[in-house]
């Protein structure tokens, strides 16, 4: 196998591993704890920088509740379509967009975990993301989510511009509070009853 092909395969696997991890609402650190690897090593695997042994690959699959199997190349497209249908992906555009936004938050968390030692602040941020993944997002909820992640976007800008740790931690608190506020609002929002249809005889009485 050429080095170029090997690199392409490792990068592709890394991307798919990241996607599978996010589908399970796991941070890199949480996945690492399941398989006995440090967060930094999981990060390198997802970047395609590690040539995995089969035993490590099998352990990662087990931790993510996945099966390793050999599939004919010609059947890959059909299999992926079946997986999407079985998991309900792409059924609701708002839900799909919300999932993408939460994936971005999970990636930001991974970047933070790479830059700073594990802290309670990072754990709370990860928990807020995980809790939002459990909710259903229709169009109004998606709009609320887009507004709620604005502090996270500020946090990302501070992190990537190498601002001070104090400023980043303050922004992290604000981002976590915003996500939790959305979660609490969605969970405790009253469910409005649908208007009942008036019986036909009542309509006739009103016409008198």
TrEMBL record:
Species this chain originates from: Stakelama pacifica
Region (Disordered): 186-208
Organism phylogeny: Bacteria, Pseudomonadati, Pseudomonadota, Alphaproteobacteria, Sphingomonadales
Cited Pfam families: HTH_31 (PF13560)
One function term, GO molecular function aspect: DNA binding
Family matches, as CDD domains: HTH_XRE
Name listed for the protein in its UniProt record: Helix-turn-helix protein
Residue intervals of the HTH cro/C1-type domain: 17-71
């Amino acid at each position: 196998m050429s080095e170029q092909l090997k690199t392409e395969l490792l990068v592709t696997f890394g991307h798919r591993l990241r996607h599978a991890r996010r589908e399970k609402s796991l941070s890199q650190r949480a996945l690492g704890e399941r398989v006995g690897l440090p967060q930094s090593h999981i990060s390198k695997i997802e970047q395609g920088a590690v040539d995995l042994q089969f035993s490590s690959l099998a352990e990662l699959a087990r931790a993510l509740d996945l099966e390793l199997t050999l599939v004919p190349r010609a059947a890959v497209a059909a299999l992926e379509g079946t997986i999407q249908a079985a998991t309900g992906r792409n059924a609701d555009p708002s839900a799909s967009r919300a999932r993408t936004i939460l994936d971005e938050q999970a990636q930001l968390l991974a970047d933070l975990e790479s830059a700073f030692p594990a802290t309670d602040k990072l754990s709370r941020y990860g928990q807020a993301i995980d809790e939002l993944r459990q909710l259903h997002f229709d169009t109004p909820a998606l709009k609320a989510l887009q507004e709620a992640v604005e502090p996270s976007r500020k946090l990302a800008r501070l992190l990537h511009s190498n601002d001070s740790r104090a400023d980043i931690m303050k922004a992290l608190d604000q981002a976590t509070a915003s996500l939790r506020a959305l979660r609490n609002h969605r969970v405790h929002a009253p469910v409005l009853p649908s208007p009942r249809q008036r019986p036909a005889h009542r309509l006739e009485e009103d016409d008198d």
